Amino acid sequence: MEYRRLGDSSLLVSAVGLGTNNFAGRLADDAARAVLDEAFELGVTFLDTADVYGRGSADGPGASENQLGRLLAGRRQHFVLATKFGYPMGESVFERGASRGWIVSAAEASLRRLRTDYIDLYQVHAPDPATRIEETLRALDDLVRSGKVRFIGHSNFAAWQIADADWTARANHLSRPISAQMHYNLLARGIQAEVLPACLKFGLGVIPYFPLESGFLTGKYRSTGEGKGRLSESARATEIMTAANFDRIDRLEVFAVQRGHKLLDLAFGWLLSQPIVGSVIASASSPDQVRANVAAAEWRLTGAEMDEVPGL
Ligand SMILES: NC(=O)c1ccc[n+]([C@@H]2O[C@H](COP(=O)([O-])OP(=O)(O)OC[C@H]3O[C@@H](n4cnc5c(N)ncnc54)[C@H](OP(=O)(O)O)[C@@H]3O)[C@@H](O)[C@H]2O)c1
């Protein structure tokens, strides 16, 4: 396993991470434990979760963190744990967002569910237009100073919000965000225009989410209707499983096969061949998928190959 510094920080993350938004919701304890054990065995140490994950499960939001906390008992110190706050955790308007009040409550609740006394990377899940970024950064900085949080990051920020957060932190001597978690994969390259240059400029590591476009980039879904999984069962299916996208993955697959690889190798390899990417946090349903993903992540494309990857 390759380990990378996240952005210009000292936080070391495994190049293949594990997303856990399917924990509790889709994976019961035994299945989630099997996935986590296999990941750990293969050197995956970076885990990404969020307070809101598990929202669709019987136990509601918080269920994924709760399950992860149970599964990490006795071995938490071997992992780099990232979680997020900001999406609604209840009906009340006070149980969401990035205000100081909510950050303090949300962090305590995540620490309790995860059964840990520190979070390695605490991320704002999405911008909160109702809160000044200075208030958010001050509250996060207090968590860093108290030792409850080691590093801070954000997700789904526009380029100007990335710049604003960095400058506000610098101007006020507050902890600076070290990472940006963004929708980024072979079929979703929108962040290349503005967000990636901003991340580069401000020393942020990028954590691509939906790296496999919910499973579509594994190649298991075919235009003939083959393939089943969370994507085919989700509302994203109509948006992703279009004729145009099947055409695109056909071209990407041909590119990979001509170079002795599979589409899955290209999905991981294309992301990890970009130094700004810290960790690829695909979720997995089984130990077999974890093994396939770790193996797929070995391909590093040359500069020429990166230029030749079919466009959209
Ligand atoms: N910051 C944000 O706003 C945000 C948003 C979304 C996600 N995230 C994070 O990103 C992580 C990853 O996103 P995601 O899980 O939604 O999408 P993804 O990683 O693109 O897709 C993962 C899904 O693909 C299938 N899969 C994985 N490996 C496979 C393999 N080798 N062969 C066949 N199928 C395979 C599995 O589902 P099936 O087996 O059911 O097909 C798995 O759950 C999440 O866990 C979460 O931590 C963050």
CATH class: Alpha Beta
Named at the architecture level, the CATH assignment is Alpha-Beta Barrel
Helix content: 25-40%
CATH structural fold name: TIM Barrel
Tell me what you see in this structure:
With 312 residues, the protein is α/β, with parallel strands linked by helices. It has one domain (3-214, 267-308): Alpha-Beta Barrel (TIM Barrel). It has eleven helices and nine strands. The protein has helices at residues 29-41, 63-72, 100-114, 133-146, 159-171, 195-201, 237-240, 243-258, 263-272, 287-296, 303-308, and strands at 3-5, 12-14, 18-19, 46-48, 80-85, 119-124, 149-155, 179-183, 205-209. Strands 3-4-5-6-7-8-9 form a seven-stranded parallel beta sheet, with helices on one face. A two-stranded antiparallel ribbon has the order 1-2. Helix 6 (195-201) links the parallel strand 8 (179-183) and strand 9. Helix 1 runs parallel beside helix 10, helix 2 (63-72) crosses helix 3 and helix 5 (159-171) packs parallel to helix 6. The structure holds NADP nicotinamide-adenine-dinucleotide phosphate.
Précis, in short:
The protein is α/β, with parallel strands linked by helices. The chain has helices spanning 29-41, 63-72, 100-114, 133-146, 159-171, 195-201, 237-240, 243-258, 263-272, 287-296, 303-308; strands spanning 3-5, 12-14, 18-19, 46-48, 80-85, 119-124, 149-155, 179-183, 205-209.
